[in-house]
Amino acid sequence: MNIHSGASAEDIAAIKANYALNGEQRAIIDHVDRVAREILHPLQEKMDAEEWWPDDLFKKMGELGLLGITAPVELGGSGQDEFTQALVSGILSKWNPAVGLSHGAHDNLCLNNLLRNGSQDQINNYVPGLCNGTLVGALGLTEPGAGSDALGSMATTAVRDGDDYVLNGTKIYITNGPIADIVLVYAKTDKSKGAKGISAFIVETNTHGFKVAQKLDKMGFRGSPTGELVFEDCRVPASNMIGPENTGVSVVMSGLDLERAMVASMCVGMSERALELALEYSQLREQFGKPISKFQMMQSKLAEIYVDVESARAMSHRALAACVSLPKGMGGRGEIHKLTAAACHYAAEAFNRSVTAACHIHGGSGYMQDTEINRLFRANKLLEIGAGTSEVRKIIIAEELLRG
Amino acid sequence: MNTHLRNDAPNHFVTTDQQALADQAYRFFQSEFHHLNAEMDDTDELPASVFPKLGEMGYLGLNVSPEFGGAGLDFTSACVITEELSRASAAIGLSQVAHDNLCVNNIYRNANDELRRKYLPGLCAGKLIGALGLTEPGAGSDALGSMRTTARRDGDDYVLNGTKIYITNGPIADLVLVYAKTSPEKGAKGISAFIVEADTPGFKVAQKLNKMGFRGSPTGELVFDECRVPAKNMVGQPDTGVAVTMSGLDLERAIVCFNAMGIARRALEISIDYAKMRQQFRQPIASFQMVQSMLADMYTEIEVARTLSYRTAAMCEGLEEGAGGRGEIHKLTAAAIFKASAATSFVLDRAMQIHGGSGYMRDTEVNRLYRTGRVLEVGAGTQEVRKLIISGELLKN
After folding, report:
1. Best residue in A12, A81, A82, A307 to probe B by mutation, most B CBs within 10 Å?
2. Set of chain A residues whose Cβ sits within 8 Å of the Cβ of B300
3. CA A318 to CA A90: how far, in whole Å?
4. What angle do CA A49, A54, A59 make, to 5 degrees?
5. DSSP string computed for B34-103
6. Contacts 24+ apart (CB under 8 A), B364-368
């Protein structure tokens, strides 16, 4: 008796393809890998030493085709899906974590959010500039008093006044804040409704009442400018609101799912680099008359890093594939919410383990600030904090598991 | 209350047909086998009805062509079934995989048509039970180098001498696929594989071993004392056993990931149930963040390990006979089983913690699972051997 119907050859090919890249993705990835290695990698040292962002870097990224990965070709983008965007993000982060971070904030948090949720006018107005790098984008959600409880504790308000909204409040830890031309800002339009009273706005940074209060001094990802933004009676045209009033929460939450999948991919890129550096160093460095890679205790660490990299990669691909097939406006709940939280949670902790082990393999030299492995080591902690702390990610997972 | 986490997690990586297969398999295994677990654990006996029932329902010979009585499934489908079977009964899952992957699939991939026609139909029907004999008292991690069992040519026969240990299904097997040295002077390159029928004179089950977990799946020590096996029972060519072993081991590692995943998923399910039901401080312990944190970490480890396992299974599809045992697939299968078994140990530890004092009692399901899962970090290559494989490939220039 045979009750089964197995997978056909076509099914198997399709499954295998899920783990591989298609020709177009492969071409993009090869290009990004080359330019990132040749152009972005050498910038690391000075960016880290001086918290320096090269003035022309966004324009240069625009010229190199690195911006607007998900934007339509007719608006100057590459017309790819978020899966490809995440792969790009991972490679940029691998060769220059600070550029990867700024790129992600611009291309995913700001630009892609605008594409998914903005009106056609808003898209036509801003996306071409964001794609060629003449405009730099940022996203403003976190506040001094609103971190893990970003929605509930949000204190920034937007009050309707004629054809405008008037914004008041402070946003903090905003990637690209100090250099942004436009910021996608969340503010409460109806305080009585709590999280259901939030709306999203596009704020041009030359608007009167917008101010970069300070540029912040980070431990890692140095060079990617992070700032505190202040809105003081900042008047924004109502036409710059994204989506209907008080629907910001769905914009945030579906955006956050994608962001987490994206962060997972950054972690994979950086872990991969940590493994490369550790492999290289362990074969070069000799002690007791032989390369330290000959010692089992080093081999054990290298193998564990590899397992973490490949586990995180497989999981991040799965989460991204799930995101890409998600209808617009969905997300922020259910399976995708749990899956992206888990992918991000795992990838960040795996990166922490990997880079700690890789730094350890580098011995005393890895403790020196100006080595690449040390930069990666310092970058690491952010990934367990930004885009939802590990604790928030676990709360999301537990809530979904315990539902029903 | 009975948590059955929907099996929708591997979407994008499993076809809808494979998903349907999993759902159907789980329902069947749960209703037929789950209730046997307590007694199997107590008695360490496998009910005689299990293998025939598996055969009758088409759950044996999963990757074997229907021409030989098999189900003709792809490798991932076999993995899916292994996972669901282990979720319902870990011990039956182990005996099934030793039979079906280690023995049957190995014969199917490497033996000539005559041997396949002779043995596979019985094995696929569950009328014959199979086992695989590799490990020896002195040959564990160094299974090939330290192997001492020999096979000496004598006329039309080979004469086997030696001892195999920790052999799953050994005490109940009708036939054992045995590795032995045909050219001891050639080291690992002098090994051959044989099919030995258990009623052959000189073959003996020296003892049935008393395990901590996976009880009900019989494990034994096998002794070959001037055991005379027809030369035509050799699988593959003389002295090519190493290729058979190593490519078989890659597939074994890939599929055993799913024994681990079935166990880990079951542990998470019963932990969720328990956390919702168990009240302390006048509320379910599931409402406490420290318990939620454990559940979230368990889910994350399981889904990450499952995803890597499915990816690895996909890469094993269509692996040529004799391929494997080196390169990318060797590294990936080692990584997947390393991750799956480490994740399972982690999950079982947290599951015990959530169950509190009750989980320490031997006759609870969580305790059975806890005692069972640990060996997955040892069997099919220890974690250390897996890391040696990975680092060996990484450092190869």
Report:
1. A307
2. 342, 345-346, 397
3. 15
4. 155
5. GGGHHHHHHH----TTHHHHHHHTT-SSTTS-GGGT-----HHHHHHHHHHHHHH-HHHHHHHHIIIIII
6. B365/B37, B365/B266, B365/B270, B366/B267, B366/B270, B366/B271, B366/B274, B368/B37, B368/B38, B368/B41, B368/B90, B368/B213, B368/B215
- Chain B residues within an 8 Å CB radius of A398: 292-293, 295-296
Torsion of Cα atoms, A299 then A305 then A307 then A312, to 10°: -170
Which one is predicted more confidently, B185 or B15? B185
Kindly give, in sequence order, each residue whose CB lies less than 8 Å from that of residue B308, ignoring residues fewer than 6 positions away. Answer: A310, A311, A314, A315, B257, B335, B336, B339, B340
- The amino acid at A178: P
pLDDT band, residue A256 (cuts 50/70/90): confident
Q: Does B24 touch chain A (CB under 8 A)?
A: yes
Mutate to test the interface with B, among A271, A318, A384 (most CBs of B within 10 A): A318
Nearest residue to B295 (alpha-carbon basis) of A314, A385, A396, A320: A396
Among candidate residues B83, B136, B252, B377, the one labeled active-site is: B252
Under a CB-based contact definition with an 8 Å cutoff, are residues B261 and B340 in contact? Answer: yes
pLDDT above 70 for A18: no
The residue from A143, A259, A372, A400 that is catalytic is A259
User: What is the reported pLDDT for B322?
Assistant: 58
Residues A267 and A348: beta-carbon distance below 8 Å: yes
Q: Are B368 and B305 within 8 A, CB to CB?
A: no
* Interface predicted TM-score (ipTM): 0.89
Q: How many residues does chain A have?
A: 404
Give the pLDDT score at A42: 98
Mean pLDDT of B278-301: 97
Please give the structure tokens belonging to residue B259.
């024994």
